[in-house]
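Aim 2 progress update. The chain analyzed this quarter is reproduced below.
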Amino acid sequence: MKHIFKLIFSALLILTVAGGCDTDELHEMNINPNAVNTIDVNYFLTAAELSASNNGLRDNRYTDWRTNIGMCGHAIQQLASTSTGTISVGDKYLENDVEPSNAPWDHFFAGDGRVTYEIIKQTGPGGYSEGAKKNTREAARILRVLCFHRLTDWYGSIPYFEANRGVEGIFQPKYDKQKDIYYDLLKELDEACSLISSSNLDEGFTAADYYFNGNIAKWKKFGYSLMLRLAMRISNVDLPTANTYVTKAVAGGVMSSNDDNVIATMALGPSEWTNQNGISRGFYPGDGGQWSSSFLSKTLVDWLMGPDKGVTTDDDPRLMILTGGILEWTANTVIYKETDPLKMRGLPNGLDGAMLNTMMGGPTIPYEHFSAVNPKMMQDDEPYMIMHAAESEFLLAEALERGIGTGISGTAEEHYRRGVKLAMQMYSIYDESFEVTDDQVETYLETYPYGVTKPALEMIGEQMWVSKWMNWWDAWSDYRRTGYPQLVPTNYPGNATNGQIPTKLMIPAYEATGNPNYATGATKPDRLVGKVWWDGGPE
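Predicted structure tokens:
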């Protein structure tokens, strides 16, 4: 698995070579009997899973550093920075139409998109694995939905139905409306979840599947949880379709335990560029080094500390999990300068170095004053969490509050409480010290009664937001849809949005100039202030 991409792209090259001989005899002469002419599509499944955790095509920190951390983590005010470089896009709303916008387009179209398409093609009519590898095929369809729902959520209208078909001669694919893409994604999930089955004798599937080791029940929960997410994401613009697919997702069964969480295991080898956690590498000193420039934001720290900053009894148990405190982190050691929860301090968003110095009354080294990310969850071989069960519980609570879908058992409050518990207790995979007890969860829930402290939907939205720590790009989508938490935008001088939190990624310039379908097909305005369909933009 470590060298999967060398194998995969070699295989893809083989698959693109078409014989040009006029006779069978010449054709046979052109075949190297020792060459690999077909490849087990299960290798592609492993590659697609790895790519979904942002490993593969480029280095493993490429997309996380530029977009997940730099753009989204700062835009939704879980992180803050005084930088005016790459991460200024999310913190200060300054346009950088290269790194934050290019990275996911580069990675996901050529990574998950290309590999899952190859699986589906080769297990379909005329493919060399037609009729075989049934579970591999359906798992690939679920992963392809994950890939393309991310892309369309970030960019709006994108190539979808003709995407990844260059081998078929489609080099300038047409753009599809987000509405049509979503309808097909939901249809794909419906079919894939019903067809993936333990009765399928899929040789090699278990070994290739390093998310669930071939556990079909967990694949179904993953697929139906994605269905629930997508259905709720369009609920503000297409309630009938949302009703239909929320009901289907509930009937199929969504994730309900942290054992169901979709997690990609990472490793230190064979090199720092392969199989390591890209988020960790983004923060690790001497590598990405974001620990010394991106801190927990004032918005997040204040929320975690509760309304009374003079006591810890109203603190969220995750405060000293998400931050390790005020610290100095080197490649060899961590020097903790302050670990008292009462003395945690978040960095305000929208400040550059000069503005911070003015605020602090003199030259200021940020890491000496502000809460940093916790190094205990930022080692290079940390697991990469792609999706968690807490989200499903929060979405079910919201669906009940809004009367969306049928067949949901229990009350909105019950699902909310389960979501909070799951979210607080999911971090022990990073370090044993991150364990949150049932009693701690119960104390927190009693401190903030459901629907009393704040309106129920606001509480659900805020809990969803904080639960997406490190999955910042999906938290950005949640925020754009729900409006929670109620963030106060920054208004840094010369920003590109007139002080509005960014609502869309810009399509890369090379795509805009190289594909004539961009002009009439892309979501406009193709700027940071553009809006996708489910956020009130064009279909």
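Residues 89 and 95 are 6 Å apart (CA to CA). The longest strand covers residues 323-329. These observations will guide the mutagenesis experiments scheduled for the next reporting period.
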